[in-house]
Inverse folding.
């Protein structure tokens, strides 16, 4: 039971202050006039002022409450290395038993779980949540069992009691890790980009020659090994082999005695993009669609266009002097012999043999195709005639052979059955509502070609073929420009040209047979594109060598897919028939393994601000002591808690110290006494 004097004034305190001033003034005046009852008058005024202040005696019946100690155990991924789990469990159990054995003490055990790979250890967040559930006035101490690698140490948190950090691990621990300091997400195909890597040793690393092996694998191929200096930045020039996603894996083999190899691998996924598409447009006889081709190509800022056009055929004789025919000679030899390999795409628009480009030049174009070049032929009536470029060295690489018939009648271009599966023509905008064309050149598709669009009576209209390393497309009509002019509603000429160009540039998203995967966290969506009606199951090989087979479901014509949840982070290899690919799930080295050596550097300042301490578990389980608040709460082999002396009020009683009757009696007696004393005098 405790007693406390409280005041509940009947008048505001400023008014009481004025009354007190009046009383003091009256007593002072009585003293100056020599009145013998001045003291009794002063006591009477003091009694009245005290009564107006309302003094009350409050008595409480209190029940003491126990102190609470929060014990947090770190169970993140880095805490599962070596003997750290045993250290954590045994120390937590021993401390919990010692605290429970103390009088008036309770223990709240908190687990810090393993968060996402990008979140790391959220120890301070766990302590904040635990404090939110407990009365702060009862918290006598906080104990964290961890390796000290905490990723939310800057969380603003007001701790009501000493915080102690008990470090797991050993002082002899050491680890080697691989860091990627600079890795762009995009790179231009054919141009070198510099990656910056670094191999670091941390902890009590053994003496060595300062060199570590580094394995580099591109696209899942066999790795190549190099020796690099430890502790120095490594600038590595890389040229991406193809467009789209390129996966590069760097690995430092595990050394004897290091803590873990989970941070010895760096997985980089870079997208290869083309700087600019270099196009050579060769126009033959001028026609209504010639300018359309030029305008379409010039409208794309990523296209560098060289337009070779024949405005005046050699057979034209009108008496104009040769010196006035042109200002300069067109560099045909330079374009078709010396610099032809600089072009990504060559378009022949209604071109026919007229003696301007010798057979040697066209033979060089055929060589350009076989060695990886791309040619698009937009055929007109000239393709069916005797001067057709088919009847030149280019004939051997054409995907279709003209029959010499030119069909002049309206028809609506359609996508063939196999074209519905081919990425060039699948899901073209507005399919079925395109405007009609008015002319088609009859061609017979060759055995190795693919007819993706058809015209009159299902005759081949757009034919594609792979020729050794290169690709050729034949459009058997010169009326594609009608779509661009909006004739009968028009059609997707620009989109069709874009897809054709990307297919001939071997862009991965336009390949007929591809196996791709896209990752979202630990999930991957596997997609298989094919011209076949079915595909075999996909084989997935995980980072640990585990093999999984999954069936693929047809999501659209020629497109099959499935979902896979990767159990581990790292590099996965996918195989489906002849197609293979690789993909990385999550970072190769999660945040938990960026640094693995136990340290007090991260939480040291926070611990010191609460007068707590940092101790290593390998030195033994610390003893528990009681310390006063504000005193150092840690020492050699011991940690302290501060008893809070919290209580619960069970009953409250109040009693007035100056009841009205007592005030009246005292005041009247003192005033009467003063009057009588002065009257006798």
């Amino acid at each position: 039971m405790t007693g406390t004097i409280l005041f509940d004034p009947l008048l505001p305190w400023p008014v009481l202050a004025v009354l007190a001033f009046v009383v003091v003034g009256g007593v002072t005046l009585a003293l100056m006039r020599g009145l013998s009852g001045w003291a009794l008058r002063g006591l009477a005024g003091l009694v009245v002022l005290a009564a107006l202040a309302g003094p009350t005696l409050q008595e409480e019946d209190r029940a003491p409450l126990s102190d609470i100690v929060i014990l947090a155990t770190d169970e993140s991924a880095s805490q599962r290395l070596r003997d750290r789990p045993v250290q954590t469990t045994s120390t937590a159990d021993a401390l919990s038993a010692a605290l429970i054995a103390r009088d008036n003490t309770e223990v709240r055990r908190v687990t810090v779980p393993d968060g996402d790979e990008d979140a790391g250890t959220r120890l301070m967040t766990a302590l904040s949540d635990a404090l939110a559930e407990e009365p702060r006035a009862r918290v006598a101490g906080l104990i964290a069992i961890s390796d000290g690698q905490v990723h939310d140490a800057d969380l603003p948190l007001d701790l009501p009691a000493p915080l102690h950090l008990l470090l797991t691990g050993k002082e002899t621990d050491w680890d080697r890790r691989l860091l990627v300091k600079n890795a762009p997400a995009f790179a231009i195909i054919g141009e070198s980009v510099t990656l910056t890597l670094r191999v670091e040793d941390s902890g009590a690393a053994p003496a060595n020659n300062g060199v570590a092996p580094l394995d580099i694998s591109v696209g899942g191929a066999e790795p190549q090994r190099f020796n690099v200096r430890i502790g120095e930045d490594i600038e590595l020039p890389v040229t991406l082999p193809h467009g789209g996603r390129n996966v590069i894996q760097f690995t430092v083999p595990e050394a004897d005695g290091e803590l873990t190899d989970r941070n010895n691998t760096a997985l980089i996924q870079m997208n290869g993009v083309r700087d600019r598409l270099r196009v050579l447009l060769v126009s033959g006889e001028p026609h209504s669609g010639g300018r359309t081709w030029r305008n379409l190509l010039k409208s794309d800022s990523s296209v560098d266009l060289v337009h070779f056009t024949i405005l005046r055929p050699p057979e034209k004789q009108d008496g104009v002097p040769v010196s006035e025919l042109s200002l300069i000679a067109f560099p045909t030899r330079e374009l078709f012999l010396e610099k032809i390999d600089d072009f990504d795409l060559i378009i022949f628009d209604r071109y026919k043999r007229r003696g301007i480009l010798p057979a040697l030049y066209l033979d060089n174009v055929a060589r350009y195709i076989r060695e990886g070049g791309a040619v698009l032929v937009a055929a007109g009536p000239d393709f069916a005639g005797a001067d057709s470029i088919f009847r030149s060295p280019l004939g051997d690489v054409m995907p279709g052979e003209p029959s010499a018939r030119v069909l002049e009648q309206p028809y609506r271009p359609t996508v063939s059955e196999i074209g519905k599966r081919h990425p060039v023509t699948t899901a073209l905008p507005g399919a079925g509502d395109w405007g009609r064309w008015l002319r088609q050149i009859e061609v017979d598709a060759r055995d190795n070609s693919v007819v993706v669009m058809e015209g009159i009576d299902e005759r081949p209209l757009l034919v594609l073929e792979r020729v050794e390393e290169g690709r050729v497309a034949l459009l058997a009509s010169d009326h594609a420009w009608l779509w661009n002019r909006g004739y009968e509603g028009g059609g997707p000429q620009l989109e069709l040209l874009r897809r054709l160009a990307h297919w001939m540039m071997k862009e991965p998203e336009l390949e007929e047979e591809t196996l791709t995967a896209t990752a979202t966290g630990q999930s991957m969506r596997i997609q298989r594109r094919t011209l076949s009606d079915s595909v075999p199951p996909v084989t997935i090989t995980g980072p640990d060598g585990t093999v999984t087979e999954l069936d693929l479901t047809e999501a659209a014509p020629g497109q099959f897919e499935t979902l896979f949840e990767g159990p581990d982070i790292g590099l996965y290899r996918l195989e489906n028939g002849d197609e293979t690919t690789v993909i990385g799930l999550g970072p190769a080295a999660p945040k938990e393994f960026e640094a693995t050596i136990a340290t007090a550097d991260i939480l040291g300042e926070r611990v010191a601000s609460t007068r707590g301490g940092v101790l290593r578990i390998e030195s033994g389980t610390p003893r528990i002591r009681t310390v006063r608040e504000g005193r150092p709460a840690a020492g050699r082999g011991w940690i302290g808690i501060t008893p809070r002396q919290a209580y619960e009020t069970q009953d409250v009683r109040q009693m007035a110290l100056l009841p009205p009757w007592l005030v009246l009696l005292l005041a009247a007696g003192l005033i009467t006494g003063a009057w009588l004393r002065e009257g006798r005098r």
In short: The radius of gyration is 45 Å. The domain at 68-170+609-615 is CATH 3.40.50.410 (Rossmann fold).
